Amino acid sequence: MKKISVLFLAFLIFLQSNLNLDALDFEVALLPQIDFHMSDDFDNSLSTSLAFDLFPFTVRGRDKIGFGLQGGIAGIKAMTLETTPLYYGDLSLIYVCRIHDRFGAGAEFFGGFWQFPKVEDKGTDAQSGLHTGGRIFADFYAFPELKVGLFMGMSKFAYKPDDFAKKFDLGLSIKYSFTKGIFKQSSVELDECEKEPIFPVFYSYYNENPFGTLTFFNGEENRIDDVTVSVLIGEYMQNPKVCAKIDSVERNEVFSANLTAFLNETILNSLMAHKTEGKVIVSYRSLKKKVTFEKVLDFTALNRNAMSWDDDRRAAAFVSSHDGAANKISKFAKSLIIKNPQNDYTANISFARGIFATLKAYGISYVKDPTSPFTSNETKDVDFLQFPYQTLLYSGGDCDDLSILNCALFESIGISTAFITIPGHILMAIDAGVAPEKAAETIRDGRYIIAEGKTWIPLETTVCQENFEISRSTGYNQWKSASKKDEARLYPMSDAWKTYKAVSIPESDADIELPSFEKVLRYIK
Predict the structure, then answer these.
(1) What does DSSP say about strands 396-397 and 365-366: parallel, antiparallel, or unpaired?
(2) Distance in angstroms (rounded) separating the CA atoms of residues 502 and 404
(3) How far is residue 501's CA from residue 322's CA, in Å, rounded to a whole number?
(4) Is there a contact between 192 and 215 (Cβ–Cβ < 8 Å)?
(5) DSSP H or E segment with residue 181
(6) Which DSSP category does 234 fall into?
(7) Average pLDDT per 10 consecutive residues for the chain, totaling 525 residues
(8) Contact between residue 507 and residue 323 where contact means Cβ atoms under 8 Å apart
(9) Cα separation of 411 and 404, whole Å?
């Protein structure tokens, strides 16, 4: 008795630690078979049974323990009788061992009652008794919900004083799982989700570059194939964007996908940070059956002026050569210089002198932003950058705003520009318009940079109310000082645009009042 109690306790502990009560499975099985009677009293015959099986327990990952209710009809034929039906009904205990994605095997033990009807013309009475037996089986998983297989077993129709019949069975089985076929939900789960805020100005960048990572767990009972992960943010997308394609994922393995999205330009209307709903769609084939899993997620879309400085080239997205207000300023300055030529080293430097004087006459001023992550070197914080037309409307900005404005002005008249970054600060440079090998003889004051196959003139934009020569000398001295410590970087705008496409805002064609020619000429002189 003591040994039985110990074994029972051990069995309960095993159940508690190994059974998965969530994996409930309900299936129906049709079992046509040949009955080989072990007595000469009855002939061999065909019979069939129907079973309803419930599998509430999962062990060892995908093995099943279940209970069933089955009933059948056996055709009994003896020398003295015509074929007469014998009815039986049983309760069963089943164990299924999933030995492969496609194959399983198991055993079933059953017990119940049988009944043989009265046959009046043969003078036999109705009989009944206990029915017990068992079978072993092998199944092939055609689909997750459909199995076909073979089985063999033995059963006994007990009666007193002698058993009514004993038989050996050999048959086929067709099993259909209602749980997996009709009520089935995907067993793929979202395991981890890392999302970054969405910066509207980078909406085209996200088509190829991720703003987060998703990790999934394959909880199906088998390998899954042709896995596709897509994302749809309904507010800013027309169709789902495929983020990842994976040939196959084994059972109990994880797989990841980078979050990318083909966002449309309407996200540039985002004037303040807000939550927007989206969903992640995972489609795959489980034993050739198409299955789809969807998970709703909240994404954060920031305002359109938001940017982070984890890559200094990102500011290039704000430098639009199609900015309407910037175009008015640049074309005004260019025409003024053409009508009033300057004795500068190159034409590009003369145009730079004209643009500097025009901005000064317009009233642009430097306004330090005390919360700017760039000046505090907190590169992962969110900064507020102005589009060129906004800096003109506000008549000022901080170092990044003024650099963006000046770059947009030069790019709009065909002069290449670059960002220059030093610790805690950003300025800009223009293409001097002279080949590097001729720079020394052309720009005799030596205040230039040879980089990326061009000759660059650095300009400090924050001294916008001083004069052009101070802008040149300050910009060059900052570059020279930081270069000695290997802390200066130059990023040509054309290269930065390859990754961070320039964004133009429709309302950039703002109505601004240009300064007078006379005032600009006075500042030039």
Answers:
(1) parallel
(2) 11
(3) 13
(4) yes
(5) helix 178-181
(6) T
(7) 48 45 80 86 84 93 93 74 81 96 96 84 76 96 95 90 85 94 88 95 95 95 96 96 96 96 94 95 95 95 93 96 95 95 94 96 86 50 92 95 97 97 95 95 95 96 94 96 95 97 89 92 89
(8) no
(9) 11
CA 380 to chain centre: 22
Predicted pLDDT at 78: 63
Tokens of 168: 């050996």
Q: CA 521 to CA 525: how far, in whole Å? A: 6
Both tokens of residue 271?
A: 């004037």
- CA angle, corner 425, sides to 436 and 308, nearest 5? 110
What integer pLDDT is reported at residue 154 of this predicted model? 94
Q: Name the DSSP class of 198.
A: B
Residue 255: its pLDDT value, please?
Answer: 97
The closest of 219, 204, 225, 149 to 316, measured between CA atoms, is: 204
The residue among 494, 348, 347, 341 whose CA lies nearest residue 430 is 348
Question: Three-state DSSP class for 8?
Answer: helix
DSSP 355-406: HHHHHHHHT-EE---TT-HHHHT-TTSEEE---HHHHHHHTEE-HHHHHHHH
Contact 264, 235 (CB under 8 A): no
The model's pTM: 0.81
Task: Name the helix (H) or strand (E) containing 410.
Answer: helix 399-412
**CA gyration radius, the chain:** 40
**Nearest alpha carbon to residue 306 among 509, 503, 506, 498:** 503
Tokens read off for 225: 């194939």
Return the residue matching tokens 């300009």.
Answer: 459
